[in-house]
Amino acid sequence: MHDIQNEHDQRGVEVDEVGIAGLRYPVEFNDGATSQHGIADFSITVRLQAERRGTHMSRMVALVHDRLRTFDPRQLPEILKSGAHELDAPSISVDASLSFTTSAPAPTSGLESISVHDLAISGRWADGLCEVTTSVTTEVTSLCPCSKSISDYGAHNQRSRVTLAVTGSGDDVYPLPAHQAVEILRACGSAPVVPLVKRSDERTLTMQAYDHPVFVEDMAREVALACRERGLTHEVRVRNLESIHSHDAIALVIGRGDALDARPAR
User: Fold this and answer.
1) pLDDT for 139-171, tens place per residue?
2) What angle, 0 to 180 degrees and rounded to 10, lies between the N-to-C axes of helices 216-229 and 178-186?
3) Mean per-residue pLDDT for 188-210?
4) Tens of pLDDT, residues 229-266
5) Mean pLDDT, to the nearest integer, of 54-69?
6) According to DSSP H, which parts of 38-144 are helical?
7) Which residue, among 58, 54, 178, has the nearest Cα to 119 in the 3D structure?
8) Most Cβ neighbours (<10 Å): which of 7, 136, 159, 257?
9) Do the record's keywords include Hydrolase (predicted)?
């Protein structure tokens, strides 16, 4: 059959990104430390040459089916390179979003429950180079230092959504496994968020939060420092789902991998 996509286009306009979005597909996420099954949402795009009328989007679905159902971010350089060759494209990008879980034992009773975290992985191959950004989002409890300072008793607290995005390239496209990112994020708040708690656990978590008040600025800085100590190129976003305000509080820190200045001397 005639391949219309391969027809010559005379308008001389390169298309920066063209492809598919919203492809939901079953995957096994396996990064060497975490192995879980789930449904991922994929987007795949390529840069289309000016002389080419269209790209072959069916090949993008085939790439997911053949190469990405076992989704290992460490394999993305090879997968993206072969995908660019198959699509005859100068660059290719793959974005995948899914959820993964970690154990969340209650602090006093020890009862087991499961925390669910959001994971987004974006890989781009161009000019023989590959770059991968891994983003993990989880929730912690934060208690306001100002509220604690000015109140006769108690202090307002809330859940906070914290996102850590780490970018790798070259031979190290996946420098921080997803479960390690969760550990860093959980440590930045006043207390963890635990799905299943009894009264003894609630008492422990409430007092832990009261003893460790943090602003959004504190949480963003703590995560950034943990990334600096590991030499990671990173972006940290924090959003407090404020409990007594009609607005949320947010903070952002962006750091390069060569910013190795860790905690200052005290």
Assistant:
1) 999 999 999 999 999 999 999 999 999 999 988
2) 140
3) 97
4) 999 999 999 999 999 999 999 999 999 876 545 455 44
5) 96
6) 57-63, 76-87
7) 178
8) 136
9) yes
CB 129, CB 93: distance < 8 Å: no
Whether 77 shows a pLDDT value over 90: the answer reads yes
Residues in Cβ contact with 46 at an 8 Å cutoff, skipping those fewer than 6 apart: 17, 18, 19, 55, 84, 87, 89, 90, 91, 92, 93
In a domain, 264, yes or no: no
User: What confidence tens digit (pLDDT) does each residue in 13-49 have?
Assistant: 999 999 999 999 999 999 999 999 999 999 999 999 9
Total domains, the chain: 1
Tens digits of per-residue pLDDT, 122-138?
A: 999 999 999 999 999 99
Are the beta carbons of 230 and 255 closer than 8 angstroms? no
| Residue 204 belongs to domain with CATH number | 3.10.270.10
C-alpha separations of 9 from 88, 119, 122 in Å: 16, 39, 30
- CB environment 42-75: b (16+ within 10 A), e (fewer): bbbbbbbeeebeebbbebbeebbeebbeebbbeb
Contacts of 207 (CB under 8 A, 6+ apart): none
Distinct helix (H) and strand (E) counts, the chain: 6, 10
Identify whether 192 is part of a domain: yes
Q: Can you point out the beta strands (E) in 4-78? A: 15-30, 35-48, 70-71
Q: Is residue 86 part of a domain?
A: yes
In a domain, 266, yes or no: no
Structural domain of residue 190, as residue ranges? 4-255
72: which residues sit within 8 A by CB, 6+ positions away?
29, 30, 31, 32
Cα(136)–Cα(95) distance, integer angstroms: 14
CA distance 259 to 266: 19
Residue 210 CB-half CA count within 13 A: 10
